[in-house]
Design brief:
Elements lengths: L2 H12 L5 H12 L4 H8 L3 H22 L1 H20 L8 H14 L1
Helix pairs in contact: 1-2, 1-4, 2-4, 3-4, 5-6
Length: 112
């Protein structure tokens, strides 16, 4: 997964566990494309301070994911839901494909 997309998903899932300051800075730099220098000027700290904060927050978000696996589970369920939709569009949801759809649904339900 592309790093920015991965960071965005981690932030979406675990961002509320961060402090307000961490959310603002990480959001501005990673999601808002603010440069380290611009963020440093905006928050009145050094460029290195912003870099360190972003690096620490990124590590913290990855640590949350390594323990909770919410993004991993979300992506797995999304993939299986897309399979079901594709099977329905291909006409497999009726008749011969019903067993496959049922199996995928069972896997999704087990994840929840």
């Amino acid at each position: 997964m592309e790093k920015i997309v991965e960071q965005t998903m981690l932030f979406d899932f675990y961002g509320e566990l961060l402090t307000e300051h961490q959310k603002q800075v990480f959001g501005d730099v990673i999601l808002g494309d603010l440069s380290l220098s611009e963020a440093a000027a905006q928050y009145g700290v050094s460029r290195q301070g912003i870099h360190d904060l972003v690096r620490r927050v990124d590590a913290q978000l990855r640590e949350y994911e390594s323990k909770l696996h919410l993004v991993e589970r979300f992506l797995k369920i999304r993939k299986e839901a897309l399979q079901i939709r594709q099977m329905c569009e291909d006409g497999e949801g009726v008749g011969t494909g019903a067993g496959s759809v049922r199996q995928i649904c069972d896997r999704i339900l087990n994840e929840l």
